[in-house]
Amino acid sequence: MRRSHRFHERPESHRRSQHHDQPRGKDSRADQSSTGQTPANYGRELRELLSGIGTPAPVPFKPDPFQLEALAALEFEDVLVTAPTGSGKTWIAREEIRRLLDQGKRAWYTTPLKALTNSKYQEFGDEFGAQRVGVLTGDRKENSGAPLIVGTTEIYRNQLFDALRGGEDVSVDLVIFDEAHYLGDEDRGHVWEEAIILTPPRIRMLLLSATIGNARDLAQWMEELRGVRCDVITRPGQRPVPLRSAFLMPDKRLVPLVGANGKLNREIAGMIEQQDDANKARRDRYRR
């Protein structure tokens, strides 16, 4: 089957050329750590790195506008939600599932990984009651007649194939594709594509992802394929849960991976350069 679209994550990396601005003098931070001396400003750096980390004070929950917009759209059309990790995409799915279950309807929640499937199965069981939630993976099958099924995308796709071969109808009203950017995966993306193609238009779709860059293209393809409008809901603004990258040095110090200038930490870059020089000297000795 030909792939209709490719949807790729946008990786970030640091070029090695950025590492070569490390001073090599005896007063450099890399030299200090190599002699067992802790830089004088290490305590301040560590406090800045770890500041604010912990459990926030509890506050009443208030949905973001993009969450409410997605819920309203789901009543009539397919929805693709693109929002950073930690911004509340799963809340949209959970509230829509709650609405459907209260109406006596059924839903499927698909994930790309067994571990994530098991985690969501536990989460939804606690939320909606274990008797209303089932799980289906390649090696786990529990409560398969439940109105909410959590399973891998491959299992959902296989159920669609089975229904098609048997001339039966798929007993589900909503399917949720978590981590929908797997559609662009070189090895497994065809599973998501086949699942979307085979899902009857009467079944609403909710796609969730933090990394789809061309969401409008995907939505347009789905509309042409299914004959159902697909709304794209995007959360504006910065990531609500900032990422902090750190590196554990050989002397057990935790230092920021990236400096204030956006480049690799000078101390780490200096250590890498020293190791490269040592490896080069070792190779030169072997050649003699």
Could you characterize the architecture of this molecule?
By secondary structure, this protein is of the alpha/beta class. Among the domains are: 65-234, P-loop containing nucleotide triphosphate hydrolases (Rossmann fold, 3-Layer(aba) Sandwich), CATH 3.40.50; 238-268, no CATH class. The chain has helices spanning 29-34, 42-50, 65-74, 89-102, 114-128, 153-166, 189-198, 215-226, 266-287; strands spanning 78-82, 107-111, 133-136, 141-142, 148-152, 174-177, 204-209, 230-234, 246-248, 254-256. The strands form two sheets. The protein has an eight-stranded mixed β-sheet with strand order 4-3-5-2-6-7-1-8, with helices on both faces. Strands 9-10 form a two-stranded antiparallel ribbon. The longest helix has 22 residues, at 266-287. It is elongated.
CATH class membership of one domain: Alpha Beta
Sheet-strand content, in percent, reads 5-15%
Task: Please state the average pLDDT score.
Answer: 85
The CATH architecture of one domain can be given as: 3-Layer(aba) Sandwich
Determine the structural class based on helices, strands and strand pairing: alpha/beta
Number of helices: 9
Strand order of the largest sheet: 4-3-5-2-6-7-1-8
CATH H-level superfamily of one domain: P-loop containing nucleotide triphosphate hydrolases
Largest sheet: 8 strands, mixed
The CATH topology of one domain turns out to be Rossmann fold
Give the helices and strands as they follow along the chain: HHHEHEHEEEHEHEHEEEH
